[in-house]
Amino acid sequence: MRPLLRTWATAWSKAAANRHGFWTGITLMTLNDVAWIVFWVLFFSRVGNVRGWDIDQIIALFAVLTTSAGFVLGMLRNARLIGPIITDGGLDAALSLPIPTLPYLLTRQVDSLFVGDMFFGVALFLLFGHPTPQRLAVFAFGVFSAVLIFTGFLVLVGSLSFFVGRNEAGDLGFQALLLFSSYPVDIFSGATKIFLYAVVPAGFVTSVPAKLVTEFDLGWAAATLAVGLGLAGAGALTFNRGLRRYTSGAVWTRA
Predict the structure, then answer these.
(1) Is there a domain that residue 251 lies in?
(2) Per-residue pLDDT tens digits of the chain, which is 255 residues long
(3) Do the beta carbons of residue 80 and residue 173 sit within 8 Å?
């Protein structure tokens, strides 16, 4: 763990070295998030309740989404770049180090733009999520589960590049997961709703944790954690299996 923590600290220092760019990125992302919240506040002030969802649940949903997505895309930047790193032959430098390859890659880069999301999500819940000790604990649990799902899913689809070569699965998976996680899963129905639980697990990223904050259910909590652990394990297993097929590209700059 010590080398990984040092790697993470170095990546954070590198991202923060350009102070103007660092704080500009955080500010821009925060303004973008505020615009989304204003939109939903105006929407629910006009229509009231939509399929059981109200403004309090939407606040919880966006708090979980921005915190978890901000952590994964900001603090674990390479999670969404696994595919390009593989196909461009950028694993060589990482494979030469005496530490696990996947954790090293995940902690190697920090993106300050999405770090703003993480800070915004925490502040949003503390200010408008009616925090109590119980709700804070459930919120933290939901964020933890969402981080596992995000990271595992992105690593899993990115690692398919070991087997099929260059493909757009990683970027498409990222866009789909982020897009569908931005809406309550209950506004969809039929096959689409099943898709958002079973194929692109957007429902488990935000909708289920948001409902758990307002009305805790042990069964759904266990299912969300199981999905997170399952995807994290599947992503790590697929990556490590794929390493056996990796052919050096003699590229030492991407890792």
Answers:
(1) no
(2) 677 777 767 776 776 666 666 677 778 788 888 888 888 888 888 887 887 888 889 999 999 999 999 999 888 888 888 888 888 777 887 887 888 889 888 888 888 778 888 889 999 999 998 999 999 999 999 999 999 999 999 999 999 888 887 767 677 888 888 888 888 888 888 888 888 888 888 889 999 999 999 889 999 999 999 999 999 999 999 999 998 887 765 555 544
(3) no
93 neighbors 177 (Cβ within 8 angstroms): no
- Would you list the DSSP string of 202-214? HIIIIIHHHHHHH
Instruction: Using DSSP, state whether 254 is helix, strand or coil.
Output: coil
CA distance 142 to 144: 5
Is there a domain that residue 121 lies in? yes
Distance separating alpha carbons of residues 45 and 78, to the nearest angstrom = 39
Torsion of CA 202, 144, 104, 80, to 10 degrees: 20
**Rounded distance between C-alpha atoms, residue 248 and residue 255, angstroms:** 13
Q: For residue 134, what are the domain limits?
A: 2-243
Domain count, the chain: 1
Q: What 8-state DSSP symbol labels residue 222? A: H
Is residue 122 in some structural domain? yes
Token pair of 233, please?
């394990």
Residue 250 falls inside a structural domain = no
Q: Token digits for 202?
A: 């957007």
Please state at what angle helix 2-17 crosses helix 19-47, rounded to 10 degrees: 90
